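Hey,
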Amino acid sequence: MKTDLLLISLLFIQLIHSQKFEGLAQTPPMGWNSWNTFETNINEQLVKDIADKFEEHGFKEAGYEYIVLDDGWMAKERDDNGNLIADPEKFPSGMKALADYIHSKGLKFGLYNCAGSKTCAGYPGSRGYEYQDARAYASWDVDFLKYDWCNTEKLNAEGAYITMRDALKKAGRPMVFSICEWGDNEPWKWAEDVGHMWRATGDIINCWDCEVGHGSWSSRGIWKIINLRDKIRKFSGPGHFNDYDMMEVGNGMTNAEDRSHFAMWSMLASPLIMGNDLRSMSNATIEILTNKEVIAVNQDPLGIQGFRFTNENDMEVWIKPLEHGSWAMVFVNMKDHDVILDFDFTKHDIGDDLKGLRMDLDSNTYTIRDLLKHSEMGNTKRNLKSTINSHDVLMIQLNKK
């Protein structure tokens, strides 16, 4: 009897401490993160300027809401009581005042820390301070925590992230918990009840298909990241998404490559976290990042991650089921020259075996909508024809008539 009571007590304790904040990130989170462009060169005025640009350029209206400060926001040492403090030169008003400013714009505020003793850039990590740090974030009205994995000697990843999840829950303020251990410990297998999104790969870099070594690790370009994980889509869904890293749209690739990058992150149901300088971007970049029809594919309520349907002659074709029986399709020209597309729907059995969904072209006709040009392209009774530029994309939505 005593053994049974002990087991029941342990199960009850486990249930109490085994839940993240529910109801958050039902679609992939959208926002901006400071790292890709600024690394640790961040300050109070920069963040306020970014928040202002959310309104000025229509990002807020398009659905972006989180402004996340990455590594380098805190002082190099904790205070005498072990509390994290904002760098007094970079952020003289402190984190609470900055959060208030961002909230006054109708946006949400995010911060970064690390499961190790130091962050990746050498600032104070949360190891041994998890509950104390979580209380600080709650007191500053933080809405999002990105939690990295540097300097974590002998820590167990799942255990470390559970500890911070429980600390955030105990602090009482709902926050999106972004797990960032680079996919090394296969978080998709254990993190659904721990975080709301988890990095599936190491760091991104602003190139089409390159890999740049940094000693013990590498940065990867867009297609290197996409191709690194091809069997994890089943783990993604509302409230728990595979994260393919912050976007490099507007950071030096061609407009065609940026369009393909944005289309693919939308198809993959990856969080849409901008990583460019919103103060000095081109009109083309704004147009790509605020395309509401493409964003709607990413934000589809079903939360299904898309998948590669075919890859013939360097033409990648990707498919994503959407609500109401609609489908998104992306055709990516991987070649270094223009390609003429002539796609016969009747020759393809289009469906998603994982979800048990099929596009019944014998019984249904689907209209075709070009999501980049915002125009109609006929229907599936006729071949889909288009010229796709090098590294560019045709992105369409198919809707039942």
